[in-house]
Design goal:
About 30% of the residues lie in helices and about 15% in strands. By secondary structure, the protein is an alpha/beta fold. The longest helix is centred in the last third of the chain and has 24 residues, at about 635-660. Homodimer.
Length: about 675
């Protein structure tokens, strides 16, 4: 795979803003379709859906005010970010906003709630005795998905929430702000959706594709009921500097020159001042377009291996998503070259350029809903291709356990992109920099959570899935995500100047993603490892059992046992290749519960799901985990422990049923 093509693609497709639903994003879709056809794919189509998106009101901007007792505005937050050099004449840069925020102009006292996590609100209410009902809360970005922060604020009774990027979470040490470095300038702010969809896709058509079938839900699924707005840390200082109330715990303090007092409200000298939110964001049904390309398999055309990544960006998308979209484009080009030389994969390969990922994984979920029956019957694996780089230290892989062995074998064949590591494999470099602790001598592979387009394929449909990208050193670099995430400063130049000047890291990620696709599509026996899955299940079972055993008296009182659950295992017996392949392919499907998780019907994977408290994080045995969460404070302990027992039974039954799918056919 050649660097130059990825560089040219990245440069070409990051010059203009291309928000989902805009004319420019449609133009990029048409350009991608044209080039994929020129590369030689068997077919390429644009697939439209009419979905709910969300945009700022151009005539009524969103902002936050401090108002005096007469209602006069004494301070207003910025209406836009300072535009980076070289982009001053670019139009259609959307100002920072929280997509799908409720409209409104609530006024009230401000309360600071750290990161807005479940545990932060618990601490505020249980230890500090502060009630946020009728208040406006302000929280730091980071640690968890922003939509979970909004949900927590709503549950606590807040009437609005403001989010800001604190330098403690969005600044790397000894690095200058952009353009002199890759840190976030004080005027930069993180855009993003604030939905709690739990896998529903388009909020108006949960469970069904948004294309002509009238299944609209009147209120929409997962939409916040309160106004939400993001600001930069320069503006945050002005909101926080006069806060009154309690001094916070040390772990609630960020890096700004303020006290981080919790409130409610301001100090005595400013007691009469309140905060007002002015939010006018509009939600509207808008047409989006996925681009779908195919190479028909030579021997098993009814088996699909999918490589998908999104195209839409909040602004320029220099990292998210175009560093990943470039990888898809380059993989298509490489496949086209092979086709021209007479090669054809054993199985069908599908390439996807998804739209509206930033608005809740909408394009990929609608296509999954549109093709559910086909995918359940035919899909072998889904490899995700979102941002290819989020740091400069080592490889990061999240995937289902059956893909672990394939990932390790593949990375042993790829060269490390790091200077001074000539002759060293990517596997060796990764192993040295991020080794699995305690239980195995191998590079760390994480569980899949959510936050990108694999969600519907893995967690709803039970298709083996994985993702790979370059990441930071988690031991020394404490910032939450790469600092300029979802800001106007995510440009091509930030990648070219700082993250990957040689584009070798992007090339390594392209080789991992592309290699997984080609091996899954072309190997006679599917390279899915049942034994690795079995080993991982044992570890997950031990972990969730240990969590429950923190409550030994309650387990005894309510007769909770993990005995049957701990005995279940998987095994594999040699069979004819096609039968064996089908059993391997359908193993992931066997972990799907059609009823879904409690309160989350579109999250159907019994072994893996996003955490209920952080969409980005993956949880194993999520039904049991959620039932155990904060159980010591349950108002009805007997009912709570009965739910734990029910979830243990569901998990034990599902794993046993999955094991049965690996036995020889009768």
């Amino acid at each position: 795979m050649r660097n130059t093509c990825s560089i040219l693609f990245n440069r070409k497709f990051t010059q203009l803003p291309h928000l989902a639903g805009t004319e420019q994003n449609l133009r990029y879709a048409e350009q991608i379709k044209k080039e994929w056809m020129e590369f030689g794919l068997d077919s390429v189509e644009m697939v439209p859906y009419d979905v709910l998106l969300s945009y700022p009101n151009k005539s009524e901007p969103n902002y936050i005010s401090i108002i005096d007792q007469l209602g006069n505005e004494v301070f207003n937050t910025s209406l836009a970010e300072p535009v980076p050099e070289g982009y001053e004449n670019v139009s259609n840069i959307v100002p920072p906003y929280s997509a799908f925020s409720a409209k409104g102009q609530p006024e009230g006292d401000l309360v600071y709630v750290n990161y807005g996590r479940t545990e932060d609100f618990f601490q505020l209410q249980r230890e500090m005795n502060i009630n946020v009902t009728g208040k406006i809360v302000i929280v730091r970005y980071g640690k968890i998905f922003r939509g979970n922060k909004v949900k927590n604020a709503m549950l606590a009774g807040a009437k609005g929430i403001i989010m800001f990027s604190d330098p403690a979470d969005y600044w790397a040490a000894d690095v200058q702000p952009y353009p002199d470095g890759w840190n976030l300038p004080g005027g930069g702010a993180q855009r993003g959706n604030v939905l709690n969809l739990n896998g529903a896709g388009d909020p108006l058509t949960p469970g069904y594709p948004a294309k002509g079938v009238y299944v609209h839900v009147l209120d929409g699924v997962g939409l916040p009921k309160i106004p939400v707005h993001p600001i930069g840390f320069h503006d945050a200082v002005n909101l926080l500097k006069n806060m009154g109330g309690q001094i916070p715990p040390n772990n609630w303090k960020g890096a700004l020159n303020v006290s981080y007092r919790i409130g409610p409200g301001f100090t005595d000298d400013f007691k009469s001042q309140k905060v007002r939110m002015n939010i006018h964001t509009d939600n509207q049904v808008t047409r989006i377009y996925n681009v779908i390309g195919r190479i028909r398999g030579a021997l098993e055309p009814d088996r699909y291996v999918i490589l998908g990544g999104h195209r839409d960006a909040w602004v320029f998308g220099g990292i998210d998503p175009m560093s990943g979209a470039a990888v898809v484009h380059e993989t298509v080009r490489s496949a086209g070259k092979l086709l021209s030389k007479g090669w054809r994969p054993r199985r069908t390969i599908i390439f996807a350029s998804w739209d509206a990922e930033e608005f809740g994984l909408v394009g990929s979920t609608e296509w999954a809903e549109d093709n559910t029956k086909l995918l359940q019957e035919r899909a072998v694996a889904y490899i995700n291709a979102d941002s290819a780089i989020e740091g400069m230290y080592t490889l990061r892989v999240d995937c289902t356990p059956s893909l672990h062995t394939l990932v390790y074998d593949l990375t042993k064949q790829i060269a490390s992109p790091e200077d001074g590591e000539e002759g060293v494999s990517l596997y060796e470099s990764w192993h040295k920099r991020d080794n699995w602790t305690n239980d195995r001598d191998a590079p760390r592979i994480s569980k899949l959570g959510s936050g990108s387009d694999f969600e519907a394929y893995f967690i709803r449909l039970g298709i083996a899935a994985g993702r790979a990208r370059y990441t930071k050193n988690k031991k020394t670099e404490r910032y939450s995500s790469y600092p300029v995430y979802h800001s106007v400063y995510e440009t091509f130049e930030i990648v070219e100047k700082f993250y990957d000047p040689s584009f070798k890291r992007l090339q390594a990620v392209a080789q991992v993603r592309g290699g997984l696709i080609f091996l899954l599509a072309d190997s006679q026996l599917l390279p899915l490892d049942v034994n690795q899955y079995a080993d991982s299940l044992r570890k997950y079972a031990q972990s969730i059992t240990q969590l429950a055993q923190k409550h030994p008296e309650e387990m005894k009182m309510y007769e909770v046992s993990f005995g049957e659950f701990m005995l279940v295992t998987l095994w594999s017996i040699p069979l004819q290749v096609r039968i064996m392949n089908d059993q391997l392919m359908y193993l992931e499907r066997a972990f799907i519960d059609p009823l879904g998780l409690p309160g989350r019907p579109f999250y159907r994977h019994v072994i893996f799901a996003p955490s209920s408290h952080n969409k980005y994080a993956g949880e194993s045995f999520p039904g049991i985990y959620d039932a155990l969460f904060d159980i010591q404070n349950s108002a009805d302990p007997e009912k709570a422990w009965e739910e734990v027992k029910r979830q243990i039974s569901i998990a034990a039954f599902t794993v046993h049923a999955a094991a049965m799918t690996l036995t020889p056919p009768a």
